[in-house]
């Protein structure tokens, strides 16, 4: 398959999921219907609560999920800039595996931080951790950072244009 189709497929998936978030938010604000928004919160947001309740798929689905346009835009700009070089270096299948693996690793790191590190830091500072276990994280930042790190390490002598 053409590597551009793979890259644009990942970008398109992120954009489509952003569209569903916007639909859910709008539907809730305009009509008071929480159905779509609740579905997105349960299945496209990573949180310790999701992990504890067996919704492990959110470790991956949250890596394609954005609620804010600026968050989506920056992540997709970096994904497009770095993704081309990574695709050329490792091919389609490994690119998708790296994107997914880095996204899951980022999600696990977030859960570990929120569940163990942050409360410990708060206690050491004499504060009570105010973290809500249902509050979650989302976005392609973990995946994008994984791709960027791979590119920086594996292709360190290669010049690539980066859109700014």
UniProtKB/TrEMBL annotation:
Instruction: State the Pfam families in the record.
Output: Rhomboid (PF01694)
Listed transmembrane segments: 6-25, 96-117
**Domain of life assignment:** Eukaryota
Q: What is its main location?
A: membrane
Q: Which PANTHER family match?
A: PRESENILIN-ASSOCIATED RHOMBOID-LIKE PROTEIN, MITOCHONDRIAL, RHOMBOID PROTEASE
Q: Which GO terms describe its molecular function?
A: serine-type endopeptidase activity
Source species, please? Answer: Hesseltinella vesiculosa
Q: Which UniProt keywords apply?
A: Hydrolase, Membrane, Transmembrane, Transmembrane helix
Location of this chain's protein in the cell? Membrane
Q: Give the similarity note.
A: Belongs to the peptidase S54 family.
Give the UniProt entry's GO cellular component terms.
membrane
Membrane topology annotation: Multi-pass membrane protein
* Domain named Peptidase S54 rhomboid: residues: 54-158
Cite the SUPFAM superfamilies for this sequence.
Answer: Rhomboid-like
Descriptive protein name: Peptidase S54 rhomboid domain-containing protein
């Amino acid at each position: 398959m053409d590597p551009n189709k793979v890259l644009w497929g990942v970008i398109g998936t992120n954009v489509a999921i952003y569209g569903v978030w916007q639909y859910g938010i709008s539907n809730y604000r305009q009509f008071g219907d929480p159905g779509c928004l609740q579905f997105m919160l349960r299945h496209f947001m990573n949180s310790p609560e999701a992990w504890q309740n067996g919704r492990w798929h959110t470790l991956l689905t949250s890596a394609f999920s954005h609620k804010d346009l600026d968050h989506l835009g920056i992540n997709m700009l970096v994904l497009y800039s770095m993704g081309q070089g990574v695709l050329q270096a490792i091919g389609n299948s490994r690119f998708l595996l790296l994107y997914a693996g880095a996204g899951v690793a980022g999600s696990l790191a977030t859960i570990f931080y929120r569940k163990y590190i942050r409360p410990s830091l708060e206690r050491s500072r004499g504060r009570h951790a105010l973290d809500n276990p249902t509050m979650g994280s989302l976005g392609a930042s973990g995946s994008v950072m994984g791709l960027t790190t791979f590119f920086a390490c594996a292709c360190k002598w290669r010049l690539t244009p980066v859109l700014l």
